[in-house]
Amino acid sequence: MPIANHHSSVPVIVDEDKCIADKGCTVCIDVCPLDVLWINEETGKAHMKYDECWYCMPCEADCPTDAVTVNIPYLLR
Amino acid sequence: MKINDIPVIETDVLVIGGGTAGPMAAVTAKEQDPGLNVMLLEKANVKRSGAISMGMDGLNNAVVPGHATPEQYVKEITIANDGIVHQPALMAYATRSFPMIEKLDSWGVHFQKDETGDYDMKKVHHLGTYVLPMPEGHNVKKILYRRLRRNRVQIENRYTATRLLKDPDGKIAGMIGVNTRTAEPIIIRAKAVIMATGAAGRLGLPTSGYLFGTYENPANNGDGHAMAYHAGADLANLECFQVNPLLKDYNGPACAYVTGPLGGFTANAFGERFIECDYWSGQMMLEFFKELESGTGPVFLKLDHLAEETIQEIETVLHTNERPTRGRFHEGRDVNYRQRMVEMHISEVGFCSGHSASGVWTDETGATTVPGLYCAGDMASVAHNYMLGAFVYGQICGESAVEFVKSRSEPELDEDFIIRELERIQAPMKRADGIPPEQMEYKVRRLVNDYLQPPKVTKKMEIGLERILAVREDVPQLCARDPHELLRAMEVQSIIDCAEMAARASLYRTESRWGLYHYRVDFPDQDDGEWFYHSRLFKDEDGQMASGKRPIADYLVSLGEEKDAYRKMRVQKAANE
Amino acid sequence: MKTYDDPELQAIAVKLTSEDPGIRRVAVMDLVDSGEPEAVELVIQALNDPDTNVRQEAAKVVDEFEAADMADALIAALSDNDEVVRNSAAHALADLKDPAAAAPLLEALESSTDGFVVSGILRALKPLRNPGSQRPALKRLGDEDPRVRREAVAVIGWLKQPENLPALVETAQHDKDPEVRRAATGALVYASPQQVGQALIALLKDEHWQVRCEAANSIGKLDHQEAVQALMESTRDELWQVREKAVDALGKLGSTDAIPVLGECSKDAMSNLRKAAIGALGTIAHSDGRPFVVTALDDPDPDVRKLARWAISKLDAAA
Ligand SMILES: Cc1cc2nc3c(=O)[nH]c(=O)nc-3n(C[C@H](O)[C@H](O)[C@H](O)COP(=O)(O)OP(=O)(O)OC[C@H]3O[C@@H](n4cnc5c(N)ncnc54)[C@H](O)[C@@H]3O)c2cc1C
Ligand code: SF4
Ligand code: SF4
Predict the structure, then answer these.
(1) Which value does ipTM take for this structure?
(2) Tens digits of per-residue pLDDT, B503-542?
(3) Residue A9: is it exposed, middle or buried by C-beta count within 10 angstroms (0-12/13-18/19+)?
(4) Which residues form the 4Fe-4S ferredoxin-type domain (chain A) (predicted)?
(5) Is B239 helix (H, G, I), strand (E, B) or coil?
(6) What structural domains does chain B harbor?
(7) Ligand nearest to the backbone CA of A36
(8) Domain A7-64: which topology?
């Protein structure tokens, strides 16, 4: 069966100006229990790659530069 | 040693799942014998994994001298579970609960204390005092992590276990799994294995339809239940589902334990209490469910009668610990505890002994029916274990595993089995198109909601089982574009296993028990003559899913009159149904 | 620069000498994953980094290590010019729970004036229950900063020494800050009723409701029989929360004189109060209370009914 791509709006936002992934930080990526945060190949900063979030907040709480904001996923907002 | 060019890693004790029970098990094994190799393998990252990733609001089941006795606790949990418990296992928890609190306290976990330094226990209802708040409980994971490093436990993050390995003589021999970021397989040979992979939380679908909006941490999708089953271990009482009261659309617990001592309560649309049951149990959930569906429903959390200072205190706890996005959720909907009640609902179904009583069968030593395999926490069958139970059974399993390893010879690996499992793991990424795991997961979980969610109806469950088995037929079409999707593809196979187990176990027990958890509309009565047993679910010699009965071990604490008092209450309730 | 045997730790040590504070900061975060005891040295080094962000990061990770290994560095960090650093150091110190830390903490206390720092040190001293903390804590009861006074109360409460009671009573009754008064009122429970009973009765009339609640609680815990009359008055307090605690306490005291007022409370509009009243009547288990309990069997609130059934069983058992 062929596969289509579908869009979805993701709950976690990373402020790229604040993110220091380029200095070697991967904290949010490390702590996420669902492994949905990855380095964005284009920008070198962290981003949410998969819309599979438990809105549990370790990514936001542990980010050293307060670059992460966890919103409530749209479906349950 | 290498199999298919993959090096086999050797360890003495392997712990799978680094949430709550797992780290305690690993640390305990090292404390018992620092010379042993102890490895902790975790699907996510031990630093922030599992149910307590952001801390916990409090202990729900602390048996603290002066406030409750182990006998009293065992009695109450027995009653709350309609008699179907293994009392020796409850007693082992109850007697070790306080020493565990003291241990955690000495490690730096913050429990609430009064102004003179004594534990500040709270009475949530008149039966016994078991609640110990921990408003500053955010640091639990940090402390566990510190202990793991200090005891030099070897940690492997971002590996998901997929199957357990056994010796030709039936003893545990290790596990096989896969890296969630690189898709590289891992083979581990171990003399004893402790599993602590948590609840099966991705079984039902939340009402919001969001696959990951579950009550449980979604990393806990029932892998452990599936692995134990395939390794030939017994599972027990799986029809005793977990269903919890939750905020509507938000997976924050109802927090009776937080707000109760401060005067908040669960109310109907008129702001009145309606719950008759005294125990946190399926009976209570049945009342909740009925109120939800009734003319006085839905159900609310009522706090608007409390003083400003109290509400601030509640907000501080609820919006910083455990589920800290709760405040944002309320903000988004303009809900303020001061002004109106908060709508509540019930969670999707799952398997979890932390709050109910089902799971991989374990006795008071944490042993399963497979020699050398131990289970602790939400996936093991010890009823109402919660967080402290996970810690206590983590400790018990750590001790038992070390004891087992002492007389254990070098395990032999079954290469054919391993090669077949490697094929299963690698298959989804070899397919360019097919069915993505997300779609398959949505489908099977939607079926669970439609056909298995209580109230349970025989014919519906039979159809549900048929449909679930049909989804299983589609597994060879599962495809994954990257290692992350491969993780989800492996998970969905466990979810299908759990869905089938849920259906078969529910069909097997032809009575109603545990209130809403196993409420069978066409068998509405509890039938102690036929069903005063643990139900078993296991893989039989032909590799088929089979059921059976396990006798209830003699009680250590008899129930006496309290049981009758409880019965009376049920009858009374039945009269106004 | 010192070299380390562990390659990972060595790599971190190298990064910590980078010119770029961003890289030094990330290196500090990596320290958390090292199981090497020597990692502590590098944390201490980072606590003294010239860059504020690096020091903050170091302060954030200190509680991942055994605080005893760096008590001195933490105490020094208590006077850092950055508040985040000071705060983390204070928290880490509080978790120390190492009796050996008492001496340096006490020394630091001696020379500290900043309210924030002082309260942090007091919080760290509290669980150690070191007799040496008594004198400085008593002194700090007179501090201007309410945060300091609050922590001083806690230190004294945890010490549980009879000779400190007059000072605690004084604070409970006359401190300007309600939270300090509340804490002191709660701390009085290690006394005997003779020593603090009068004060607790007076505190039932404190202007702040949470102090009044705490006073009722403490009276209940101490089983102070002479407080019955005062508690009975408190069952008419303007706030139901206070009335609820007074009713609880009357139950604990087992006071049969209170049955009529408890009966009144069992008919109150606020269900939480009715619950408490029926609970108290059950605990007292005297036949005079039975009519109220019987009425409550038909209460519209199921929690009240449950307690009424339980209270009946207590009454039956006592009869
Ligand atoms: C929202 C919420 C609130 C709660 N509130 C309270 C409370 O206030 N008080 C209380 O006492 N209890 C509470 N509980 C219950 C308590 O948290 C749990 O009972 C306890 O933490 C369970 O511990 P565990 O070790 O079994 O599971 P977890 O701590 O969840 O750990 C399971 C671990 O296994 C890992 N894992 C899963 N599958 C695999 C695999 N295939 N391979 C490798 N690793 C895997 C997971 O990533 C996870 O880290 C709450 C639970 C939840 C979900
Ligand atoms: S934790 Fe913060 S700084 Fe680090 S990678 Fe994530 S967003 Fe960037
Ligand atoms: S909120 Fe939780 S699940 Fe979502 S991205 Fe952050 S850590 Fe991951």
Answers:
(1) 0.97
(2) 999 999 999 999 999 999 999 999 999 999 999 999 999 9
(3) exposed
(4) 10-42, 44-73
(5) coil
(6) 8-242+350-415 (3.50.50.60), 245-346 (3.90.700.10), 427-529 (1.20.58.100)
(7) 3
(8) Alpha-Beta Plaits (3.30.70)
